[in-house]
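User: Predict the full complex structure for these chains.
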Amino acid sequence: MAEPVPSGGSIAEPLKSLGLTKYEALVYVALLKASGATATELHELSGVPRASVYPVLERLSQKHLVSVSNTSPKRFNPVKPDDAIDLLMRSIESDATRAKTELSRVYAQAERPARGDQELIWSIHGDDQIRSRLFELLRGARSSVQIIFYWDHLKEELITTLLSLAATVRVDIITDRFTTPVPDRIHVTVRTPPESHGIATGKCMAGGVVIVDGKQAMVVMGSKEEGFTALYSEASGFIRFFTMYWNFFSSWIRT
Amino acid sequence: MAEPVPSGGSIAEPLKSLGLTKYEALVYVALLKASGATATELHELSGVPRASVYPVLERLSQKHLVSVSNTSPKRFNPVKPDDAIDLLMRSIESDATRAKTELSRVYAQAERPARGDQELIWSIHGDDQIRSRLFELLRGARSSVQIIFYWDHLKEELITTLLSLAATVRVDIITDRFTTPVPDRIHVTVRTPPESHGIATGKCMAGGVVIVDGKQAMVVMGSKEEGFTALYSEASGFIRFFTMYWNFFSSWIRT
DNA sequence: TAAATGTTGTTATCACAAAAACAACATAGG
DNA sequence: CCTATGTTGTTTTTGTGATAACAACATTTA
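Assistant: Here is the predicted structure of the four-chain assembly.
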């Protein structure tokens, strides 16, 4: 018995994002396994140095995660995990909403030079950010959307978004496999590019190009393992290059 | 211009609970005020050392809170505050739910010596914990509840909870001001204790005693500023003492 | 009873890593 | 040339992790 509980380490890990230190997490988990334990028992059970157990339990008590007995030796009781985590989350959530309102106010008040985004090429990291910016971009389309995509994980959402665009928007799609029926204003070209072309080769590589209204362009590439990277720009050179790329790709693919 | 932004410090504060460091928060807030700024501009605007701005922006980029341009000098754009905070919160929430399930499993599997709570007196800190344990205790009442409370902030919830108890539970209440009509099985004694008694003196002091089924007792005291502290016990001596206290208080108050 | 032993709770101290703050340097662009 | 940028390295600081020593008290053993 009294093994160092290798699983305890992994269990304690997510607690650290909730504001607990390593020791706090370890002791709390140990206390869950032995409610009403003494400091020494917790020391043995958690692997935390005995002398450190006392200040750690003090901190946990101040965070309202444990209650303490008045006996000698002191005994400790954990707050039920659900209550404890709800407690921590409430605190974090309140901070989050406060931050949200204050930061949104700051962001709204800041006068943004409209030229800020012009002539620059932005790198975007993170699947969520890319997704968010991509659909924001598409929903802003007014006259035309030209899109090449060779990926799967956003295909459905992408198609429904494209279909929901106003009828005045001309949509050109180049992709592999496409089964959904579409209205006339949407032109779909299906073609699996050869391996040599580099895009969509093998397992998880994916990529895409989106040009909206001939004024905004976004390029995405990456793999599911290494994550995705995207470029976005309204710079004329950037637009020209990828419009040319689109034209070339489009005509080449019809051969 | 370029004042050190004293408000920035307080605005950046709640971001730290979301896993950002001081610098990360400061730079992000500064970037909200000046989208598309360069590293040097952010240094001047945030007060963060210029050399530190680069690694900080690198970290923010990895956390998907900013996007970077490819120009020279580099320019940076913030992710919209709402998106950014939602992003951070989602990550924390997923950790929280994971922790909740795993910890609940641990807590459920642990065999809890039923005698653990016996004969011990537990200190409980934190308004929420006290509230939670208090109502848990009341809802567990089977035959009797004796309660003295001189506080306001839980009065309503307390009364509704007491009214919702089974008809087989005899309820005795001693408190100040009481207006709600109650069924016969509930006995209410109203009396404002003199200042000298020490309970409920002045502004925000408050206190209370609860005895459930003659087997469990909880005592609460504190002030709204300093917070509350509670004692809970099933120890016979503890119960005896406060039952006696209750009897004394009850008879004295009727004079 | 008195000495030896063990446990508890506390305090002081040291080690270590991350973050914060500063200094130095190479270089690109005006 | 000079300024500003971007990068690198070093120092200081802070919070946490880790070890040792200590007083108070209880228990055991001679």
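Chain B has eight helices and ten strands.
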